[in-house]
């Protein structure tokens, strides 16, 4: 009996120091999820990081594609005197086999109260060009997580939404064409043919071979 009483007292002590005043949350009924905002060339699209980003393959992308990271949104709750003072979306873009860079930050300003002590923080003001950032052929990753700072009352000074530290990562294949041809024409001049062309870009390109048929 003495051992059981001792164990019970330890449990009570540990539970009394757990933080319970603030955190990220998701509510399916209210469509309140942690999301990122993309523009693929046809306007804003919201993608939930848990189901539409993490582990998802976004296909083949080339120089002619549009893919902008516009920002994100996050939902937080706060109780017992806790207050959330800022929310940040962290991201990084890197190629398979290379050392990932440090995370870059997108500040998500307070947007609105959404009932009780729940809040929405969001921004779509960014224009981060994922295509331009992935300039060489191969497999690329885009990784995300969220953090929020608090006033430290009944809450940790910084709280996270990060898939238990593994973060949320999508991947895609970058196709790079060595020459992007924008025009090509041939004009006859006497017994000769004048060939003219223009290109949008050239990568690792040494020259041209012309064949007549």
Task: Compile the SSE list and pairings.
Elements: H1 2-16, E1 22-24, E2 35-39, E3 44-48, H2 49-53, E4 57-61, E5 68-78, E6 84-95, E7 104-108, E8 110-113, E9 118-123, E10 128-129, H3 130-133, E11 138-150, E12 158-161, E13 168-174, E14 179-189, E15 192-202
Parallel strand pairs: 4-13
Antiparallel strand pairs: 1-5, 2-3, 2-5, 5-9, 5-10, 6-7, 6-11, 8-9, 11-12, 11-13, 14-15
Question: Which features would summarize this protein structure in a list?
Answer:
213 residues; mainly beta; seven-stranded antiparallel β-sheet; six-stranded mixed β-sheet; 3 helices; 15 strands; disordered N terminus
Task: Write a structural description.
Helices cover 11% and strands 49% of the residues. It is mostly beta strands. The strands form 3 sheets. Strands 1, 2, 3, 5, 8, 9 and 10 form a 7-stranded antiparallel sheet that branches. A hairpin with a 7-residue loop joins strand 11 (138-150) and strand 12. The radius of gyration is 26 Å and the shape is elongated. The relative contact order is 0.19. The model is unreliable at 1-17 (pLDDT under 50).
Radius of gyration of CA atoms, rounded to a whole number: 26 Å
Uncertain stretches: 1-17
Q: What is the percent of helical residues? A: 10-25%
Biggest pleated sheet = 7 strands, antiparallel
Characterize the quaternary organization of these chains: single chain
- Reading the helices and strands in chain order gives HEEEHEEEEEEEHEEEEE
Structural class: mainly beta
- Number of DSSP helical runs: 3
- Overall mean pLDDT: 87
Q: What is the end-to-end distance?
A: 98 Å
- Tell me how many strands there are: 15
Strand content: over 45%
Note the overall shape: elongated
């Amino acid at each position: 009996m003495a051992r059981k009483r001792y164990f019970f007292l330890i449990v009570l002590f540990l539970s009394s120091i757990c933080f319970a005043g603030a955190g990220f949350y998701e509510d399916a009924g209210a469509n309140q999820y942690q999301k990122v905002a993309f523009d693929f060339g046809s306007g804003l699209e919201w993608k939930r990081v848990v189901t539409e980003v993490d582990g998802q393959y976004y296909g083949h992308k080339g120089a002619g594609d549009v893919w902008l990271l516009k920002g994100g949104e996050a939902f937080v709750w706060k109780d017992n005197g806790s207050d959330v003072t800022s929310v940040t979306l962290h991201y990084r873009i890197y190629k398979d086999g290379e050392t990932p860079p440090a995370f870059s930050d997108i500040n998500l300003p307070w947007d609105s109260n959404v009932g009780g002590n729940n809040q929405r923080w969001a921004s779509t003001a960014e224009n981060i060009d994922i295509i331009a950032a992935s300039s060489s052929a191969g497999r690329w990753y885009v990784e995300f997580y969220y953090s929020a700072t608090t006033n430290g009352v009944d809450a940790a000074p910084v709280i996270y939404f990060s898939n238990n530290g593994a973060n949320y990562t999508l991947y895609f294949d970058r196709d790079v064409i060595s020459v992007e041809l924008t025009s090509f024409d041939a004009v006859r001049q006497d017994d000769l043919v004048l060939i003219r062309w223009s290109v949008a870009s050239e990568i690792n390109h040494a020259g041209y071979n012309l064949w007549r048929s």
